[in-house]
């Protein structure tokens, strides 16, 4: 299992990486859109956790770009196919949940408000990756 965490805040990236790594999940991180694309193209990403609002290329714009290129399994070098994996949106503006879901489309598996409970993050990731979950709090979606 490999999860790509994209957030412009280093503390949030580190927190998510540490929480998920403790559950045996491989995590790669990116602080901006360019780094995110590079990490995605390395391959093996089964889920993306994406900050909705980032300076420069926003999470919404990055999602649109990735969806256009990989939403239906776009080609990248040597004929390889990559499909956009499930996306969890993290936002400091949870009141925008419905707008976010409508804008991001069917690849979104949920919207997690900041600040978040670590076990909620773990539950969403494990459920999305088909690993199940035991303990913790109910998901705040």
Describe the structure.
With 141 residues, the protein is an alpha/beta fold. The protein has a single domain (2-128), classed as Rossmann fold. Helix content is 37%, strand content 21%. The protein has helices spanning 10-21, 33-41, 59-70, 97-104, 118-128; strands spanning 2-6, 26-30, 47-51, 75-76, 80-81, 87-91, 108-113. The strands form 2 sheets. It has a 5-stranded parallel beta sheet, sandwiched between helices. The chain has a two-stranded antiparallel ribbon with strand order 4-5. Helix 1 links the parallel strand 1 and strand 2. The chain is globular, with a radius of gyration of 14 Å. Mean pLDDT is 82; it is low at 74-80 and 133-141.
What can be said about this structure in brief?
This protein is an alpha/beta fold.
Report the radius of gyration as a whole number of Å: 14 Å
Shape: globular
Number of helical regions: 5
CATH architecture: 3-Layer(aba) Sandwich
- Give the helix proportion (percent range): 25-40%
Strand segment count: 7
pLDDT averaged over residues: 82
Beta content: 15-25%
Overall tally of domains: 1
- In CATH, the topology is named Rossmann fold
SSE order: EHEHEHEEEHEH
Question: N- to C-terminal separation?
Answer: 22 Å
- What's the CATH H-level superfamily name? Response regulator
Largest sheet descriptor: 5 strands, parallel
Give me the side-by-side strand order of the main sheet.
2-1-3-6-7
- Sequence stretches where pLDDT stays below 50 over 5 or more residues: 74-80, 133-141
Level-1 CATH class name: Alpha Beta
Class computed from helices, strands and strand pairing: alpha/beta
């Amino acid at each position: 299992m490999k999860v790509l965490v994209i957030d412009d805040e280093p503390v949030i990236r580190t927190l998510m990486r540490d929480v998920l790594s403790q559950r045996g999940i491989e995590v790669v991180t990116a602080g901006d859109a360019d780094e995110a694309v590079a990490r995605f193209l390395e391959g093996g990403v089964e889920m993306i956790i994406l900050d909705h609002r980032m300076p420069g290329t926003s999470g919404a714009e990055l999602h649109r770009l990735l969806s256009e290129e990989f939403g239906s399994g776009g080609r990248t070098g040597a004929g390889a196919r990559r499909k956009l994996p499930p996306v969890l949106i993290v936002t400091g503006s949870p009141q925008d949940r419905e707008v976010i879901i409508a804008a991001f489309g069917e690849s979104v598996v949920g919207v997690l408000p900041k600040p978040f409970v670590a076990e909620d993050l773990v539950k969403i990731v494990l459920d999305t990756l088909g690993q199940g979950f035991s303990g913790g709090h109910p998901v705040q979606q």
